[in-house]
User: What shape does this take?
Amino acid sequence: MVDVRPSDAATPVVSAFYDRFPFPGDPLQDGPPPGYNWRWCHRSVLAAVHGCCPAGAEQPRILDAGCGTGVSTDYLCHLNPGADVVAVDISDGALSVARERLQRSGAADQVRSLRQERRSLLDLGEEQPFDYINSVGVLHHLDQPEAGLHSLAGALAPQGLLHLFLYADAGRWEIHRTQRALTLLEVGTEADGLRLGRQLFETLPESNRLRRHHEQRWAVDCAPDANFADMYLHPQETSYNLERLLAFAASAGLQFAGFSNPEVWDPARLLTGELLERAQALPPQQQWALVEQLDPDISHFEFFLSKAPLERRVWSDAQLEAATGIRQPCLWGEPDPILGRNMEPLQLTADAKALLTAVVDTPMVPLGQLAPAALIRELVDRQLILLQG
Ligand SMILES: C[S@@+](CC[C@H](N)C(=O)[O-])C[C@H]1O[C@@H](n2cnc3c(N)ncnc32)[C@H](O)[C@@H]1O
Assistant: This one.
């Protein structure tokens, strides 16, 4: 195996692990990936974070840092036509699956350029700055995640956004115990570990909490061996609580720019009445701390970071009417979408459908010529129309 430089103490063991178990274990297929994920669509992300797509963001430079078997890179190519996409990973095994996946899906034909390289995210010094960096499930596998975050921050353009996914302590309580049990049993991180790990869940009493949790929450995800190994046999991982997460972001001088699953952090998901009113009176960070306490099933954090503090643009009615917009690219169904950006069923009035069709058929027309401000605002708030800044 050729060394990956610069590396950290975890690189050799982690790259060897993913050579054995390339992750994620999603099957390969010909043609574009199924559906969409708005977190991998730069325009959708900009609109979610800034309240509009700033001008000049049409051909972003995008990095997939720790791309694994290329599922995210595939979406990044198909959802960002004309972009320059770079995908790096330290595992040859994962990258060879990623290359085949992207070749079969025709990903390179969608973008201006695509590079897939065996490289550590600690080694990005020669790259031009990126407008968007996606790094999902990666930094928590470094020996020093702060060094990884610092490297990504250095590769980010001044107005760029970083999307991270990191493990959360609370919802991984059962996973951590299982991991420690398997370590005590010395099953290792290879094929024996996989066999004995699966045997463990068959052997434990049906009422056992670890077994029940696995069967109810994770068994489907863990059907591919690579996913089971990633969850229970990993040789190097860490996880966070909210307080440590925010300190982690600040360690690289980055600003927290919002969760990419904000609905999870909304107290209205859990509370009603006076309790909800009290919760909503708290500053955002305390609302999130409250949700963290109330929902011990949260097993990961997914969020955006930026270099500069962000101010979400607030639009007056007159500004909305003068603005132009595009249809959210991550909707299911043409011309009448039936699923929203989170694949949720959409209820749309006839007027809302007509406006969505009009923004596609007559681009660059001020929205005020197509509908009243109240309807424009409703569709913008629902992330169905993305305003052009
Ligand atoms: C859990 S997988 C996530 C893969 C992909 N991001 C996804 O979510 O589908 C973690 C990946 O990060 C890669 N990785 C770990 N440390 C890395 C580093 N220092 N630089 C680049 N990739 C790294 C591993 O090889 C592995 O493929």
